[in-house]
Write a structure and sequence with these properties.
Order of helices and strands: HHHEHEEEEE
Helix content: 25-40%
Number of helices: 4
GO molecular function: endonuclease activity; hydrolase activity; nucleic acid binding; RNA nuclease activity
Strand order of the largest sheet: 1-3-4
Subunit structure: Interacts (via N-terminus) with bacterial lipopolysaccharide (LPS).
Radius of gyration: 19 Å
CATH superfamily: Ribonuclease A-like domain
Distance between the termini: 50 Å
Largest sheet: 3 strands, antiparallel
Number of domains: 1
CATH class: Alpha Beta
Subcellular location: Cytoplasmic granule; Lysosome; Secreted
InterPro entries: RNaseA, RNaseA-like_dom_sf, RNaseA_AS, RNaseA_domain
CATH architecture: Roll
Structural class: alpha+beta
Pfam family, one: RnaseA
Shape: globular
Number of strands: 6
């Protein structure tokens, strides 16, 4: 009888070992994007443009949904990658993969307007430090740290 129970248990443990790393990575980027290229699409806007135009560029990949809010950093992707090389600390999700920019940067915050059925946004501009979650390429500690989430 113990033998009959062992196989399904081993099968479940094997599936758990395969799926846990996938759950830990969080939401997957749309087809055609790597986590870094999706981060760049969503959060890097070196030259400011209107929230409406910038959010339309993102929402086209969300299957008809409107992203409720988004922050655009007016820096290069390389600037954000450089932040990934700084000392890490605990993120809101309790992982220890967050890094804080050493200096404030210009950013645009886009928030969807509550009373619209369409994807209509209001924008505000600010200069603040940002926090970014970084992961090693291919989850290999020997590879470089890359930005994957803006806190």
């Amino acid at each position: 009888m113990a033998r009959n129970v062992t196989f399904p248990l081993l099968l479940l443990l094997g599936l758990f070992a395969i799926l846990c790393p996938l759950w830990a990575m969080g939401p997957q980027p749309p087809a055609g994007f790597t986590p870094v290229s999706w981060f760049q699409k969503q959060h890097i806007l070196e030259k400011p443009k209107s929230c409406q135009a910038a959010m339309n560029d993102i929402n086209q990949f969300l299957n008809g949904l409107c992203k409720r809010s988004n922050t655009f950093l007016h820096v290069s992707l390389q600037n954000v990658k450089d932040v990934c090389a700084l000392k890490a600390f605990q993120c809101r999700d309790k992982s220890t993969t967050c890094h804080r920019s050493p200096a404030p940067v210009q950013m645009t915050v886009c928030k969807i307007m509550k009373d619209t059925n369409s994807c209509t946004y209001r924008e505000s501009h600010t200069t603040e430090h940002f926090t970014v979650q970084c992961m090693h390429r291919f989850n290999d500690p020997k590879m470089e740290l890359l930005p994957v989430h803006l806190e």
